[in-house]
Amino acid sequence: MGTRTAFAALATCAALLVTTGCSSSFGSDKEPEQDKAAKQKLTVLIATSGDAETQAVKAAAAGYAKESGNTVSVEVAKDMNQQLAQAFAGHKPPDVFYVNSDQFANYAKGGSLYPYGDRISDADDFSQQLRTSFSYDGKLVCLPKDTSTLGLAINTDLWKKAGLTEKDYPKTWEELRTVAGKLTKNGVTGLVTSDEYQRLGVFMKQAGGWLTDADQKKMTADTVENAKGLSFVQSLLKSGSMKFAKQVDTSWGGEALGKGKAAMTIEGNWLEGGMKLDYPDVKYAIAPLPAGPAGQGTLAFSNCWGVAADSAHRDAGVDLVKYLTSAKQQLAFADAFGVMPSRTSALTSYAEKRPTAKAWVDGSAHAQGPVTIAGFDKVLSQFNTELQSLRTADPKKILADLQRNGEQAIAKGH
Amino acid sequence: MPIRTMRVSGAPRSTGSPGAPDSAPGETGTPAKARARRAGLRGEGTWGWLFVSPMVLVLGLFMVLPILMALWVSLLHWDGQSNPFSGQADFAGLDNYRSLLTQDGLDRTLFATSLRNNLYYVLLTVPLQTLLALGLALIVNQRLLRGRGALRTTFFFPSVTSSIAVSTVFLFLFQGSGAVNSMLSWIGVKGPNWFADSRGVLSLVLGGLGIVDPERPTGMLADHSTMGLSWFEWLSGPSVAMCTLILLAVWTTSGTFMLIFLAALQNIPRELEESAAMEGVNRRQMLRYVTLPALRPVLFLVLTLGLISTWQVFDQVYVMGQGAPGNTTLTPAFLSYSAGFDNADFGQGAAIAFILLALILVLTVLQRWALRERGARTGRNR
Amino acid sequence: MTAAATAVRERTRRAPHDRGRPVLSRFRLPWRLVGYGAVLGLGLLYLLPFALQLVTGFKTDPDAAAHPLSLLPTTPTTAAYQRLFGLSQAADGVPFLRWLGNSALIAVLVTAGRVLFDSMAGYALARLRFRGRSVLFGFVLAVMAVPGVALLIPKFLVLNTFGLFDTYTGMILPLMVDAAGIFIMKQFFESVPREVEEAARVDGAGVFRIFWSVVLPMARPALITLTILSFQGSWNEFTHFLVSTQSGQYETLTTGLARFVSGGLGGGTQYPLKLAAALLSTLPVAALFFCFQRYFVSGANAGAVKE
């Protein structure tokens, strides 16, 4: 008797609240009501690489605020992915924000991003592979904020000490094997890089393979080309002339290069800022990555400027993005924290100003953009986990796992 | 109000049995009890419900309702965007559970990895923290030890601090070139790069003994697999990184359990110890034959409390690695969170949460059942 | 009980002992020294992390990285603290004062709510007779068994459905009642002799009057324990805030610090800053702990004895 009353009471309470509450927060079908005020209040969420980037974005936002009369507040996320995912699911997103390429497809698929690509008249100025990465269902969703590619960074002092000259900068895999062997001695390792596909993937690309086909519709991981690329890395690892950054007590290639533990590393434009900050006295040069059996290849990375579908200030948001991705502003960002402009026009003037970064700039011609498939985050992190044991594991098995996991993720997404 | 006055004067419930619970309504009792039941104030029932209404509302809305809603969501493919309670949601039946438990794939591999990690975490943390807590309690219980109070405070203090703050400190201490490794270098040990080392401790030990080659496992262990993990991976033990989490857990929880042991130690009838002393036992015998047997029920309580709480490890994982390196600090609780909030797969996350919930509830029910059995037995003895 | 033990008990009853005296003789001196050494070492193991935390807060980043174990900063600086309290320029991303304010606000409200609602519910479950009481008590026991971490996604779903996600209400309301507190209060009220209430009833006091002016004042020790446990619990709460908020303005010391430590490694490791923030966030609970230690102790034991 008592039991029944209590349950009835509980159930009534719960049911009442469910029916009254449900209508409130879900319901992405409706278009959000747009703020029509002349002065709009925008919030921007960024993930920063350091104070320099934060200051630069804030300055740019202030410049836009002055020009447009809107107010812009820039917030720094500490854990971008989690904060954005919660914000989208809670329907309280910031108006404008960085979108990591790993997460882009998840957000686009869920309809969290306002696809403003068709409102950008000069979208062609952005490089083709970056536009592909940030398109969903054939539509350009958001503009790439900037870009960076990978190059071969060389510690020039160690290079000279090993009796090598600039002419010896490796152009092919075999040359890379030779110089790495020569450089490996006295606690120095020839080539040190992180144990993740974001670095090792260059060898797959150079061998003529990649994880997916060009449209990112099909997995092409389990191929002879990819196996060739990974086997080459494995042979270097086995010979000891290549090591992963963690094996030499460093957290990334730049640190190994700066501490003199590595003569060469594979890193992108961010290396410049890192070296300037932590190892200002270490001399280094950037060379193009050596070519593999299928020619040259490198990887490109980028974030894009997302505008929230749930934003009440879409127009102002797109306006702000246009301002932030203008050639002038991109060059200012490049000066402040080292990234490359994602506009081809701005990239040219960037290259003129920075001859040292030539290899990175040239890399964009044969660079592979990031994989952007919904639900792929964990597939790739599992791939990275398996790459950690590449020295002893069977490359074919790693690739077969990746193929299987990727196919499942693609199937689940459709 | 004749009955009430009678109760007071007759005092059937004197201070002699203060803790005795009232008889539940609806229960058939003696006539005296029935009268006592009717003796309540007018509207006591209304007041009763009024008093518990905040509890019913809050716990109902934020404990019961979430479980029901999550049960529903765990049956969907839901990416967190649409309304899961309308028709738009993609009903998936038991798919989420199937991909975690039976279907070969990444989801199952990750889930199995998280189970393995947490299993080792439990297997190491529970005995260590219990032993340490017992040891600390025995020390602090030494009547002749100077500064016992200060020691008790010291041992207990880590337990009251926030798990986030303490994890931050441990991150600092266990850096590659951090305090712990500098200390280890004093005794000539080169400490590992704790948070970057994904190698299993057991496989390292076996590798050191030359029994297996941890980098190239062969034979039966490598060829068989369960839930997508090879036997070698199941058996390679907690990773070096996971060991720091285990140390942290032992360090922070031992204080609380020490207090529980201490209370039990102080409840041991002194006469028992004195009679044993008179029979001329030494310290070890006293511990073996008097103290430990008396602590047995508490020991069981501490073990089960530890067992339940170690399956819930989350905060430390969030701060100290979020699964890295190589998924070796991934736990089911964190996997549930990250499936939902990192990968926008809330159905999967809810399904993991449910499996975890079931596991912990089973443990709790076992604990309560066993404690009740025990309580009944000691009750008879008394 | 064996006959011998009964006999001993008889004897001891006749000759009451000083309870402070040990049962067995002391250790011999060398052993005693070894023992003290070991105990001291063990104590250091518990203290050293906090000592290093305190000292490192006053070091510079390179100093902290180069000499992680030294108990004296080579170049003492208060830069970390200045940054936390917004006295220096580069305070972005660590709005410590906001975290502190949020934590304090929430802890105070949650504590007030818990003390009131838990004792009300505890009293009703212990003393008032109403339909469904035993079911409700079973409900409380069941809720106590539900692990918080299994409710991360579920709680987010509910808060989101009610439109409480990313609001103070959503952060506070679900914490207002906790089952363990109700259990503690119920146990306590059951130990209070009934006569007091009966007497008040004879004087014609109503249920609420009896609860408010007679029973609650008697429950002071239990209330203090509950207050302290609630404050500590809500101050250290992490998972609930993690899933109930998203924007920076609602960050508390726990969520703010956790996101700062786990995510934004952008500007180097910044351990002095992180450790200083962690230290400041433990201070209030530490202060409470040193003032009211015995209530913490009784809380730890009350929490353990669940059945």
Would you kindly provide a brief summary of this structure?
Chain B is mostly helical and 382 residues long.
Describe the structure in your own words.
- The complex is a heterotrimer of chains A (414), B (382) and C (307).
- By secondary structure, chain A is of the alpha/beta class.
- Chain A contains 17 helices and 15 strands.
- Chain A folds into 2 domains: 41-147 and 302-368, 3-Layer(aba) Sandwich (D-Maltodextrin-Binding Protein, domain 2), CATH 3.40.190.10; 149-300 and 375-413, D-Maltodextrin-Binding Protein, domain 2, CATH 3.40.190.
- In chain A, the strands form 4 sheets. Chain A has a 5-stranded mixed β-sheet. Chain A has a 5-stranded mixed β-sheet with strand order 10-9-11-8-12.
- In chain A, helix 8 packs across helix 9 (224-239) and helix 13 crosses helix 14 (344-353).
- Chain A is globular and about 65 Å long.
- Chain B is built from 17 helices and 4 strands.
- The radius of gyration of chain B is 27 Å and the shape is globular.
- Chain B has a two-stranded antiparallel sheet with strand order 1-2. A two-stranded antiparallel sheet of chain B has the order 3-4.
- Chain B has 382 residues and is mainly α.
- Helices cover 69% and strands 0% of the residues of chain C.
- In chain C, helix 6 (133-145) packs across helix 9 and helix 14 packs antiparallel against helix 15 (271-291).
- By secondary structure, chain C is mostly helical.
- The chains are: A alpha/beta (414), B mainly alpha (382), C mainly alpha (307).
- Chains in contact: A-B, A-C, B-C.
- The A-C interface holds A 1-3, 5-7, 9, 17-18, 21-22, 24-26, 47-51, 53-54, 75-80, 82-83, 86-87, 89-92, 277-278 and C 90, 92-93, 131-136, 139, 156, 160-163, 165-166, 243, 245-248, 256, 259-260, 262-264, 266-268.
What name is given to the CATH topology of the largest domain in chain A? D-Maltodextrin-Binding Protein, domain 2
Radius of gyration of chain B in whole Å, from Cα?
27 Å
CATH architecture of the largest domain in chain A: 3-Layer(aba) Sandwich
Q: Taking all residues together, what is the mean pLDDT of chain A?
A: 86
Number of strands of chain A: 15
Instruction: Give the beta-strand count of chain B.
Output: 4
If strands are numbered along the chain, what order do they take across the biggest sheet of chain B?
Answer: 1-2
This entry's quaternary arrangement is heterotrimer
Terminal-residue CA separation of chain A: 50 Å
Order of helices and strands of chain B: HHHEEHHHHHHHEEHHHHHHH
CATH level 4 superfamily of the largest domain in chain A: Periplasmic binding protein-like II
The domain count of chain A comes to 2
Query: Hey, roughly how much beta strand do the residues of chain A contain?
Result: 5-15%
pLDDT average of chain B, as an integer?
81
CATH class of the domain at 116-200 and 237-331 and 360-381 in chain B: Mainly Alpha
**Which structural class fits the helix and strand makeup of chain A?**
alpha/beta
The geometry of chain A reads as globular
- Count the DSSP helices of chain B: 17
Number of helices of chain A: 17
Taking the sheet with the most strands of chain B, its summary is:
2 strands, antiparallel
| Residue share in helix of chain B | 55-70%
